[in-house]
Amino acid sequence: MAAVGVILGSDSDLSKVKECFEILEYCNVSFEIIISSAHRTPEQTRQWAASAADRGIKVIIAVAGGAAHLPGVVAAHTTLPVIGVPVETSIAGGLDSILSIIQMPAGIPVAAMAAGKAGGANAALFAVSILSLGDKSCAERLAQYRKEMAEKISGRNEALNKMGYRDYIKRDRG
Amino acid sequence: MAAVGVILGSDSDLSKVKECFEILEYCNVSFEIIISSAHRTPEQTRQWAASAADRGIKVIIAVAGGAAHLPGVVAAHTTLPVIGVPVETSIAGGLDSILSIIQMPAGIPVAAMAAGKAGGANAALFAVSILSLGDKSCAERLAQYRKEMAEKISGRNEALNKMGYRDYIKRDRG
Amino acid sequence: MAAVGVILGSDSDLSKVKECFEILEYCNVSFEIIISSAHRTPEQTRQWAASAADRGIKVIIAVAGGAAHLPGVVAAHTTLPVIGVPVETSIAGGLDSILSIIQMPAGIPVAAMAAGKAGGANAALFAVSILSLGDKSCAERLAQYRKEMAEKISGRNEALNKMGYRDYIKRDRG
Amino acid sequence: MAAVGVILGSDSDLSKVKECFEILEYCNVSFEIIISSAHRTPEQTRQWAASAADRGIKVIIAVAGGAAHLPGVVAAHTTLPVIGVPVETSIAGGLDSILSIIQMPAGIPVAAMAAGKAGGANAALFAVSILSLGDKSCAERLAQYRKEMAEKISGRNEALNKMGYRDYIKRDRG
Amino acid sequence: MAAVGVILGSDSDLSKVKECFEILEYCNVSFEIIISSAHRTPEQTRQWAASAADRGIKVIIAVAGGAAHLPGVVAAHTTLPVIGVPVETSIAGGLDSILSIIQMPAGIPVAAMAAGKAGGANAALFAVSILSLGDKSCAERLAQYRKEMAEKISGRNEALNKMGYRDYIKRDRG
Amino acid sequence: MAAVGVILGSDSDLSKVKECFEILEYCNVSFEIIISSAHRTPEQTRQWAASAADRGIKVIIAVAGGAAHLPGVVAAHTTLPVIGVPVETSIAGGLDSILSIIQMPAGIPVAAMAAGKAGGANAALFAVSILSLGDKSCAERLAQYRKEMAEKISGRNEALNKMGYRDYIKRDRG
Amino acid sequence: MAAVGVILGSDSDLSKVKECFEILEYCNVSFEIIISSAHRTPEQTRQWAASAADRGIKVIIAVAGGAAHLPGVVAAHTTLPVIGVPVETSIAGGLDSILSIIQMPAGIPVAAMAAGKAGGANAALFAVSILSLGDKSCAERLAQYRKEMAEKISGRNEALNKMGYRDYIKRDRG
Amino acid sequence: MAAVGVILGSDSDLSKVKECFEILEYCNVSFEIIISSAHRTPEQTRQWAASAADRGIKVIIAVAGGAAHLPGVVAAHTTLPVIGVPVETSIAGGLDSILSIIQMPAGIPVAAMAAGKAGGANAALFAVSILSLGDKSCAERLAQYRKEMAEKISGRNEALNKMGYRDYIKRDRG
After folding, report:
1. In terms of Cα–Cα distance, which of E169, H37, E84 is closest to D100?
2. pLDDT tens-digit profile of E68-116?
3. Which CATH architecture has domain D4-134?
4. Å from B66 to nearest chain E CA?
5. Could you tell me which of H21, H102, H119 has the C-alpha nearest to residue H68?
6. F115 in contact with H, Cβ within 8 Å
7. Which residue of A has its CA nearest to H96?
8. What is the pLDDT of residues D43-65, one digit of tens each?
9. CA distance A85 to A115
């Protein structure tokens, strides 16, 4: 039984939110993945969303680009928390997807994340922060994740101080 | 039996596309109106769209603001031509609605019109241009509409020539 | 003990998210409100965010306009789920606030809602959807809210069918 | 005698809407193609548009980038349904073309599609949905197209379930 | 015989470019005005543009909002210099008109001015700067216009110095 | 002898940056004001900027809307720190002014502030933060300003806690 | 003695407007080129602009990217017609340059062209259209240019008709 | 003891503002560099900012992309002048970062620079212009920098005049 359901409008979005899956795994959160379009497979999308709670899903992550109706359509068929991840497009780098996901009308919320890679990672982390309210081991993994992030930055500052900016930049590119 | 089905995401959109209804009436095109949200009443929207062809509907006009998923969601449930009308919003005057309607993914088209009043009028005229392909009396009303538009502009030029721009502007404001 | 903490960057934002408070009350969710700026009172903001979990807060709603750093700054000091509500501004109707809230870097998520009134309402509903995972009575109120929304639309369609669009629009304006 | 007329502002747009031609062929819809600019060859454009109905054309598809006046100019010279396809440009990925095509004034509608490849495909599908109103075999091909789209997604889900996301992404890139 | 031809897409634009006419009069430049739409009266627009040079017109000013194809369509039918004035719209304050006028394809130039009142005034001044190349009295009026502009600013600085900013602002509003 | 020079492109901008003058006065910083346009009075602008350092000016604040070239033109004629304040316009609420001020080429910096009222206030505060580096009494006033800002927010929280959000909003509007 | 003066903010812009020079040469219009920045070499820019009319220059073309103040600054120092060419930048493909050039305040006009290559070509053609008012041989070259443009399109249509779209696209890429 | 403190939200920003460091070195200004995120290491950021003045820092440069809260967060913890450098992102080339840095609320100013390379260089030059108010040798280096910039342009004009535009462009690319 999966705690998080991830739905993607296209299989080409899978690689764009790879960090999402990796972070869920890091936090030991079970998840299921489905490719289903709001427009091309509306019935599949509706049934998947409407039955998610009964399957034990607690949080849904919906990934879509362009008109990006998927997160809103999913949210219309469930009262579970739905997190929307816009995919970068050619219109101003994803402004179309961002606005389509964030501008949901009063009544049916979607939690919008950043466009692209950061959005995929943060969707997972936000799902984990919700699950952490009722799951201590989940909360510990999340705390651990933050700690490691901070430690990485410490390590970078040490290297930068030792090497100076010139060598650091060179190494970065080497 | 109505030839055109008009679906609006909110009853507050009715007054914004009044010209749509008036032009359909001018062209003697029968139509039905329903208020139904893609998100707040997804089942009603789905059933209305999926059964439209069987009810004799030939063209659908879908009006929505903000995330404006309605035209796309309707198009997912029918192969009838769907015309989308964005409603002006506070985000750059409706840029969110425009992009959400126009940026449909390959496979499920929506015909996007201008935001606001012009879009409502043009949705009706575009529906009429489709119906005109199979209905001569409809085509005659459309031709008549264009002729009257051109005549109104002739009348304005005559008035402008007679009065000069100063008096014309004053009259316009009076 | 409050379940939801609402933090606003300015007291002038209170009236803009009134629906947020009303929906939380409708769902019998206890909440606390604080006015605190990310920039003008950074210490108060930090302490409020860092101690929120210990006070029993489960979900945070952060409301801000312009540069709108508040939701991100709050999220930096807690692992609780943080929902961000952009306030409409003069820059393209709030595009600055929207982008500043949604474009959080990988690692520290904020759940971005729509700009303005819809965002305030949806922040409350999204918080309730999270609380519903662990609180049955909360979930029932949320289901009830959705049901009432759909019923209101039914009522509007009945009125529209009875009156016709012309009288409905007039009544709407009367 | 062609049922659909496709007009492109530049021969460099041909490859950008290749899917348009392929879908028309898939649906057994005859079409003619002309390269003609609204600005560089205005007379040719006008005559082509004004005579389209007499040549038996039922639907027009006009493709243009930048200022993208072509669909509007064509629509001014015919009452046939005109579908406009914006071409991606460097200004925010085609925002200039999108706005120029969608923001037609009341009276002369153009049906705007998405920018780029998706727009080309959808223009063809939208034209087919119009022709389907009076042509049963056309309607059958359209239904078949949708069915195949859905089946492709089913196949992808099966592969994804079998392989897991890691291998699926690798294969995708391999 | 008029030296400047002003064409407006709608009579509602007349008052928006009043300064255009006033400056032409100030510089003793004769002009004609016509209301003609690129889309609603394409034949009238074409004939007016194509015959402008023969009527003695030297510079054309074309005013339009929304899709704003008028300046480009006029430029397609003449080699006279065409100045385009975008009218402020609800889309980001006229961004649609601006982009549609400025983004002309290589081969057919239009000289784009600012949106709104400033654009109307500057279209006249730019036309006068062109006419000044071959007309000394015209050049003198233009030089005089610039001198008076600078003198007005001097007067304001004197008043500001005398009154202080507080009283100056009050007076400004009184 | 003034420490800060404020230059405005138009006298209509005076009221828009009133807070700028009030904060300079609060901090006991002497200032001079001039109305001078980059385009309409280029010589005056150039001489004012080029001679500012010799007059004892230490920081320049330049206020302008639309194309907003003034801050950049001033910066070209002095090595003093130049702060630019965009004025809100109809293009997306001042996006044109913001981009024109912030996008200075490498070599000649301008410090861009927010559009409108906040920008006027912050230009003064930023000027004061620069002067504070060499002037202790100036630094004390700046510290005092920040303290009072924080105290105002404390007062608001007390009132909010006493009254509840409903009465607070009512009072706010009363 | 040159008839057209071309000023560029940076030598890296030279290759971006190569078509500008080629078209001027095609039309036998003499021109001079200078690299001069509004901000880095303000004195050189001012003197070049202020003395242009005396050197016999009739039309000025100013090319600039980013804040793109150059055309406006040049126009402030001359009453000759000034044509502005925005250079494509990373901000939405040149939106910053476009707005900075087009949004000139009332009083000092600049004729804005499209961003990038098309803008360079059109600046030359617009300059030629101005010069054509007083120079018959210039007008003949402009008419010839338009004729050749149209002929090229005819040739492309012939090839397309002969080859079909599939082979035409292949050849295009081959 | 460093006079300028540079804080970057990510080590990947180091190479993007290399010019910043090089110009500070050219002007003999001592500086320290730290990598610290507003969100991932909020405590480190706060302490670094709050203690900067005591460490002798006079001006702070903060570099960040995406939501780009770093400059504002730093400014909240110090009264030193804070210069913000947006990093280019995929959203319209950095519009998100630009707006998030420039739209600071009244009370806590940040001096926003251009996005990307130019912004890094100008942040250094602006810091130097502040330090120059109290440090003559610093002022001399700044004056020298400007002089060399102008001389480089002179050299380019000489080359251009000698070679002609064709060869100059070729050399540029060679």
Report:
1. E84
2. 999 999 999 999 999 999 999 999 999 999 999 999 999 999 999 999 8
3. 3-Layer(aba) Sandwich (3.40)
4. 14
5. H102
6. yes
7. A95
8. 999 999 999 999 999 999 999 99
9. 6
